[in-house]
Amino acid sequence: MKIRILFGERLRWKLSSTPCKFWTSFRRSFSVINVSFRIPSETERNDDDKIEPPLAEEIFKSGPKLGSYKQGDSTFYNLIKNFADSGDFMSLERLLERMKQEKRVFTEKIFILVFKAYGKAHLPDEAVYLFDRMVEEFQCRQSVRSFNSVLNVLIQEGLFNRSLEFHSCVVGKGISPNVLTFNLIIKALCKLGLVDRAIEKFREMPVCMCTPDVFTYSTLMDGLCKENRIDEAVSLLDEMQIEGCFPSPVIFNVLINGLCKKGDLARASKLVDNMFLKGCVPNEVTYNTLIHGLCLKGKLDKAVTLLNRMVSNKCVPNDITYGTIINGLVKHGRAADGARILVSMKERGRNPNEFVYSSLVSGLFKEGKSEEALRLWQEMIEKGCKPNTVAYSALINGLCRDGKPDEAKEILLEMMNKGCIPNEFTYSSLMRGYFKAGNSHKAILMWKEMRNNECVPNGICFSILIHGLCENGKLKEGMMVWKHMLGRGCKPDVVAYSSMIHGLCNSGLVEEGLRLLNEMLCQETESQPDVVTYNIIFNALCKLGNTSRAIDLLNSMLDQGCDPDLITCNIFLKSLGEKLNPPQDGREFLDELVVRLSKRQRVVGASKILEVMLQKFLSPKASTWERVIQDLCKHKKGRAAIDKCWIDLFG
C-alpha cells in the first residue's frame, strides 16, 4: 500500500513537539506502510486528484492518533478557507460545529472568510444568519470588519433596502461605523435614488471621526449626476480639494460622464483640461465618455479627431472606443466613414468583434451599399469572428431591405443550424421583406414559424403584420390580428394604429377610422397620431368631398402640436382645385397656414410650408414673408434656412 502526498498543493503541519520526534512517531505508527513521496504526472492525475481539497480532512482526523501531533487552530482555519474557497458549505458548517464542541477559539477572520464565500455564492441570507450567531453561539465578538463584510454582501446582491435595515439594527447595538461603512451606505442610498439622505450621511462622517475618501466623493457624485444634479456634483470637486482629498481619474470620469449625458460638452472639455492641471492623466474611460457624448450630439468629426488625439497621447483605444464611433457614424448615415475607421482599427492591431461588424453591415445595407455589406460579412467570417444573433439579424434585415427575402430565409436556416436562436427582430425583418416583395403568404408563414419556435411577438411584429395585411387589402385578417394583439395585452403603437386606420379608410369605413384616431388621442405619447396618421384621414375625407371636415381636423392637428408636411399640402391643394366650385389654387389656404404656425412659434413648420409655396410658385403675402423671416432671424437660423431653401429649389 502506498500513500501519495501531492507536493503540488501547500500542506502545513502544526507540531506539538519537535519535528524529529514527530517523524519518529510517524514512521513507527506506519512501519508496515510504504510511504512514497512523488509528484504524479498530468496523465496520472485522475478527476479525484483535481477536485480533492488541498487540505484533506481525513489527514487531520488521524493526526491526534499519532501521539505527538495535535491539531491547532490554524489547522481549522486552513480547512475553513479550503471549504469556503470551494463553496462546500455543508462541510464548512460541520467543521464549525466540531470546533464549537472542542471549545476552539473562534476569531473574526474565520467568519469574514465565510461571509466572502457566501457573497461569492449569492447567499446573503446565510451571511446575515451567521453574523447573528457569532456572539451567542460561537463566542466571537463582532467588530466593524465583520459588519462591513456582511453589509457588502447585501449591497453586491442589490438588496439595498435590506442593507439599510441591517445597518440600522447593528449600529444601534454599539458597533461604530468606519469610512468603509459610510461608503457602503452612501452607495445603497444613491442606488435607491435617495441622494438627499446620502448627503446627510456624508455630512455625519466628521461627527463620527471619519474622513471621506475618494470613494466617498465618487459615489456621491455619481448619485448626484444620475439625478441630474450636475452642479452639486461639480461643487463637491472643489470641496474635496479644500478638505485635502486629491481627486483621482475616477472622480473626473464620473463628472465628465454626467456632463456628457446632459449634453454640456463645453464644461466636460474644461474638466479634461482641469485633469491635466491636477496631474491626472485622462485614461481610456475619459476618452470613451467624451467620444460617446460627441456622437450623441452628432459631432462625429470631433469624435474622430479626439480618437486621433487619444492615440497621440499614448492612450490605447479599445473595442468600446471604436464601437462607439462606428455606431455613431452608422446612425448618422455615414457607414462608409465607419468602414474607414474599421480599417484604422485593424491597422492598430485591434480585431473588430461581431457587434462592430453587424453595425456596419446594417448601416451599409440601409445606405444601399449591399455589395460592400456582403463583402464585410464575408471578411468577418474569414477572420474567424463567429456571428451571433445580432449579426445574423443585421444581415437578414439588410437582405430584406435589398429585396431579397428568399436569400434572407436561407441565412435564417444557416443561423439556426449553427445554434443561434432568432429573435422577434429577425422574424419581423423577414415578414417586412416578404410583404414588401408582395408575397403576403410567405410573410404569414414566417409569423406562424415564429410562433411555433416559441418566439413571443412584440408590438413591432404585430405592427408589421397588421400593416402588411391592410396594405394588401386583407382588412378582415388585419382586424383579427388587431384583436389578438389587444387580447395579449400588447399596446398598439402609432404604426399599428395608422395601418388599421389606412385599411379602414381604403375599405370606405372612414368613420371607424376616425374613431380609432380619437382613441389614439387618449393614449400615451408613443401611440399619439403623427402627420402620417392625419394624412391618411385627410386623404380619405377629401376623396369623399368633405374638405371642410378635413380642414376642421387640420385645426385639431395644429392644436395637438403636430405640423403639416408636403403630403398634407398636396392633399389639400388637390382637393381645393378639384372639389370646389370655383376651384382654388390654394395660395390663400397655405398663406393662412403659414401665419397660424408662425403665431404658435412653430418656426420650422412655417418655413416648410413657405418652402412648398415657393416650389409651387405660389407667392406668399409680403406680410407673411416678413413674419417668417423675422422669426427665423430671431432663432439665428435665417441664413441656414435660406441656404437650404435655395439648395432644395435649384440644387
TrEMBL record:
Q: Show the Gene3D superfamilies listed in the entry.
A: Tetratricopeptide repeat domain (1.25.40.10)
Q: Which domain of life is it from?
A: Eukaryota
Return the PPR repeat spans: 143-177, 178-212, 213-247, 248-282, 283-317, 318-352, 353-387, 388-422, 423-457, 458-492, 493-527, 530-564
Q: Which InterPro entries is this protein grouped with?
A: PPR-containing_protein, PPR_rpt, TPR-like_helical_dom_sf
Keywords of the record: Repeat
Q: Which PANTHER family match?
A: MEMBRANE-ASSOCIATED SALT-INDUCIBLE PROTEIN-LIKE, OS03G0201400 PROTEIN
Into which family does the record put it? Belongs to the PPR family. P subfamily.
Task: Quote the protein name from its UniProt record.
Answer: Pentatricopeptide repeat-containing protein
Q: Which organism is it from?
A: Tetracentron sinense (Spur-leaf)
